[in-house]
């Protein structure tokens, strides 16, 4: 059995002449709660729809637990998916949706769904369209988890929620995941929300993966350096300069380190916050995309 919940290689999806996702290669190990970060239009939803088999790639491939998810009756039951805006049958009651889930899924935990809805004090017999946005998000998460998936994909499920409802949703997600061995890939552009629950990070910008890996490792590999004005490529122990700003006498660099630590006393080192790291890679991705566009124009 593969230890990768999701793996892609040079995955791409094109609409007309524009690539929504391009050269996307990543590996998401099982057992992780991963944050998929990027601005609107970065390709997050496209990646998730390819992973769940709702789209056919125009380049490369995607594998879920080592298998192609498209029309795959073996792997699709292992995937739970909550799309943007938590689409549900608005005229159905929660009871109707739980009953429908039992008819459509071969491994369905109706007792879990009923118990969780009751704990959340969501009315069973009220049409879903008349529930609040937070309640609909919780119903969608409950239905996805009642499927007992091994991989749960969430496409910005809290984007329309207020801060309190977002926090409650994230807490509920953590509680549900802690009781199972589910791998989660959670798409969002709200880094603060992801930081509370995720241990793995994937950064998308301009249809490309800019950064991927365990969050603790990524933070440990990056540093902010402040020192004398210099050419950043000359610094020993620096694998890559992600961002740089300069005054006449001083340089401030966010770098990815390699090998032995940087011991130059003329440089002050600081740890990097997750949001600062994400923003730096998003800006770097924008610069790269512009360079490619200029070359290919």
Features:
297 residues; alpha/beta; 8 helices; disordered C terminus; AAA+_ATPase
Number of beta-strand segments: 13
Cα shape: elongated
Q: What order do the helices and strands follow?
A: EEEHEEHHHEHEHEEHEEEEH
Corresponding CATH architecture of the largest domain = 3-Layer(aba) Sandwich
Uncertain residue segments: 289-297
Q: Using the CA coordinates, give the radius of gyration.
A: 21 Å
| CATH fold name of the largest domain | Rossmann fold
GO molecular function: ATP binding; ATP hydrolysis activity
Organism: Streptomyces lunaelactis
Protein name: ABC transporter ATP-binding protein
InterPro entries: AAA+_ATPase, ABC_transporter-like_ATP-bd, ABC_Transporter_VariousFunc, P-loop_NTPase
Task: Summarize the structure in words.
- With about 300 residues, this protein is an alpha/beta fold.
- The chain has helices spanning about 45-50, 95-105, 110-120, 135-145, 165-180, 190-195, 215-220, 275-295, and strands at about 5-15, 20-30, 35, 60-65, 80, 150-155, 185-190, 200-205, 210-215, 220-230, 240-245, 250-255, 270.
- β11 (about 240-245) and β12 form a beta hairpin.
- The termini are far apart.
Describe the secondary-structure layout:
Layout lengths: L3 E12 L2 E12 L3 E5 L6 H8 L7 E6 L14 E4 L11 H11 L5 H10 L13 H14 L4 E5 L7 H16 L4 E6 L2 H7 L2 E6 L2 E7 H7 E7 L9 E9 L3 E8 L10 E4 L2 H23 L1
Parallel strand pairs: 3-7, 3-8, 5-6, 6-7
Antiparallel strand pairs: 1-2, 1-4, 8-9, 10-12, 10-13, 11-12
Keywords: ATP-binding, Nucleotide-binding, Transport
InterPro entries: AAA+_ATPase, ABC_transporter-like_ATP-bd, ABC_Transporter_VariousFunc, P-loop_NTPase
GO molecular function: ATP binding; ATP hydrolysis activity
